[in-house]
């Protein structure tokens, strides 16, 4: 069985590695021949909206999936006419636009940040008046890891924020003074089987995920996160892995965004859960039974951003797993991660402090 993966970044590479024990072969589509996926499978090089490249990929595989969100929908719809394409293109369409995402959460009864669409300076002024300060102005599309965002704390911030971002459709969100950020990763298979991993705690800096700790131990939070996840999965008649990121405020979940794909906050599952998110994604899109999501210990995942930390000193820590994506270091770029799996939360936190001390500042 051959799987086509649109995008050959680290997520694609980890999907391919999870596929080999299941006798799955992969072929990637990416703009660059030396993307991480190229270390483990062939890459068709071409633009994501180039019909010829897409046709070349489709021709050589049985099924197509994607590892990143900015695939042009029209191109994917065209490809889906010749090969099954999962997760459903409609889920990707919604996730590409923060406004559609928040409208969907609202429709499904999932609490989300207060929001307003903003297409003009007048809209922005009205939205700020309605939601109040502070608030966050974001581009609706193509924003990730905190890019394309402006924090507004006083009336004088309104005009400069419009000048900085106003050339594209925007969304204004009320600022959530959250206690913590969490996410849930889960899957639904083509046969309708569902599973969910434990809710995890995420720490961001400069809008980029730094640390994930698993599992989060609130049974109430787990129940409501799973309820929200399942609503989204069923809405799309979904197949594959899906992630929802939430703010937690006074014990209540507020959905921030969803990703119709394997997710950085699920990397800990490679060594920290009975079945990884990558394997479950493949099982889900191929209609295989889903694997257990049970954590095998207390895990922490730490991203390597911009600079690679001293590998051998990290490898010397007990229960640590090292992932180098083989990418050239660049400020703000995710170039690898490590996961610690420990037998208690205390031991995990002790090891995590040692890892963080070894990271270049
Ligand atoms: P995003 O690109 O929407 O995931 O935003 C990146 C990070 O910015 C989030 O992980 C939060 O830490 C912060 N953030 C985004 N939106 C809000 C909001 N409405 N209120 C408070 N913090 C936010």
Question: What would you note in describing this structure?
Answer:
The chain is an alpha+beta fold and 361 residues long. 31% of the residues lie in helices and 28% in strands. It has twelve helices and 17 strands. The strands form three sheets. Strands 9, 10, 11, 12, 13, 14, 15, 16 and 17 form a nine-stranded antiparallel beta sheet that branches. Strands 3-2-1-4 form a four-stranded parallel beta sheet. It has a four-stranded antiparallel beta sheet with strand order 5-8-6-7, with helices on both faces. Helix 1 (10-19) crosses helix 10 (277-285) and helix 2 (51-59) packs parallel to helix 3 (73-80). The radius of gyration is 20 Å and the shape is globular. The termini are far apart. Adenosine monophosphate binds at residues 113, 136, 143, 146, 173, 175-176, 181, 204, 207, 256-257. Residues 113, 136, 143, 146, 173, 175-176, 181, 204, 207, 256-257 line the site of adenosine monophosphate (AMP).
